[in-house]
Amino acid sequence: MSIWTWLGAVFPILFLFLMMSVFHMKTERAAFLGIICAMISAILIGKSTPQIVTTDLEKGAFSALNILIVIWPAVFLYEMMKFAGVFQSIKQMLQKKTQDELVMVLLICWLFSSFLQGITGFGVPVAVCAPILIALGVQPLWSVIITLLGHAWANTYGTFALAWDALITQSETQKIFEIKWLAGLLLLGVNFAGALLISWLYGKGKALRHIFPFLLIISLVQGGGQLIVSFTNSAIAAFIPTTLALVVGWLILSAGFYTKPWKMDSKLMVRRENEEIEKQLNKVITTEQLVEVKENSSNKPITNGQAIFPFIILAAISVIVLLIKPIHEVMNQTIFALSFPQIETGRGFIVEATDSYGAIHIFTHAGFVLLLTVIVTLLLYLQKGYLDKQKMKSVITATLKKIIPTSLGILFLIVMSQVLKGSGIMQLIAQGVTQLTGKYYSFAVPFLGLLGAFVTSSNTSSNILLGSFQKTAADMISVNEAAILAAQTAGGAIGTVVGPSTILLGTTTAGCEGEEGEVLRFMLPIVLVEAAITGIMITVLIH
């Protein structure tokens, strides 16, 4: 493969990143142009026919539905909780438990977001946690960034181990025990690194010295717990330790540790409250905004128990639907999928025919779980008077305002991703990296996992896309396939931090739409360093 072929293959991905992070183009526009670049690359570099490209466009649109049916109820739930006064109630509840600002931030962006990743995934953690952090005083953009950093480690065994199952299924490896051991250690490192980085961003060395014992204990419970539980049951390897970590965190506070007032002059936080109020007073306010202020100010105070009710229901429904085997087997039978014929590009890249492309298990899907949560919560809040007819009108209006541009952005991103996958472009990129690195390919593996997660905004999709390739590459260069596959899923977990569709969902609920490029630009050096450290560790282990 020539260097020009490889550059032509990687161009659409570089284009998307540059448009979003350097030129600050809106996500939906950048992704739409990215589709055009991907189509050109697919035809000229991947040797796809117009018919193959059309098929990939159809596949991409259907794949986007899998994510959109999660996003729509998630945004609606967020708006409903906002108008019911949930986030302010959670803030007050946390402040009664501890006056340590950094601990409060970590409880949400690290512990709670990881718990949500364990049972839901699909961007739900950042959609839910960013608004809570904003209520605690975190700047909107930072609320998205630190939540992404806080739960990245749980993106292999989260969502009841979807990404793990994809890795094992696609690679057809038999070295499951060894992969679990290596992946668990790598993800423990990602967990601890994320917590350290969040604390450093809050207050550098002083914050780290203050919070280090807390970080060490919780990281051992989360990351160490995941490693241990994975050998017993992969499906709950993230759910059990993230739940336990919440309990341990609460016990630490109940014992009197980290409860006294403590905070720093942090760039993460909004400090100059009077100036912010003055800015808002001098700002031209629309009629819609005045209505929203009036509605929020007249909310009936919500109790602590009913404020956290949506999260309890979400967890309960997830456990019942996904972990109770007889119920899961019955509810998992209703499937919505499409059929596509086999395709073969001019380069000989083959995508097998399928009768179940993008299968959506309707009644066990995260979107259905969220929809049930929305319905039950809505009935309670209406009955208790936290929501009324006028507020519901505002909830619907605010939801539609957010989901239309967000849905377009995600649709275009997933379509672009599918064109790159279906034309073999991602395989060409991976092959080029293999040729370049040779026997030190192990160092590059986390970067490929990261790239797969960036393109697809999912570690599961990254493992589906590259799992088989990674095993084949390991066999070709005669290196330990378990180490390679562990590095693949660790790199994919790291890469979810820069997944454009996940970032887009976070900025949507945080109210900083259009700043996705800023998140990308800040995150890229971090994920590259983490991937490099992972690559070095695996290379040293192999050699």
Automatic annotation (TrEMBL):
UniProt keywords, alphabetically: Cell membrane, Membrane, Transmembrane, Transmembrane helix, Transport
Transmembrane segments: 6-23, 30-49, 61-81, 102-134, 181-203, 210-229, 235-259, 307-324, 362-382, 403-420, 440-461, 482-502, 522-542
Localisation per UniProt entry: Cell membrane
Membrane topology, from the record: Multi-pass membrane protein
KW Cell membrane (keyword) present: yes
Pfam families: Lactate_perm
GO molecular function per UniProt: lactate transmembrane transporter activity; solute:proton symporter activity
Any single Gene Ontology cellular-component annotation: plasma membrane
The UniProt record lists the keyword Transmembrane: yes
Family: Belongs to the lactate permease family.
Described purpose of this protein according to its UniProt entry: Uptake of L-lactate across the membrane. Can also transport D-lactate and glycolate.
Protein name, UniProt field: L-lactate permease
The organism's taxonomic lineage, starting at the top: Bacteria, Bacillati, Bacillota, Clostridia, Lachnospirales
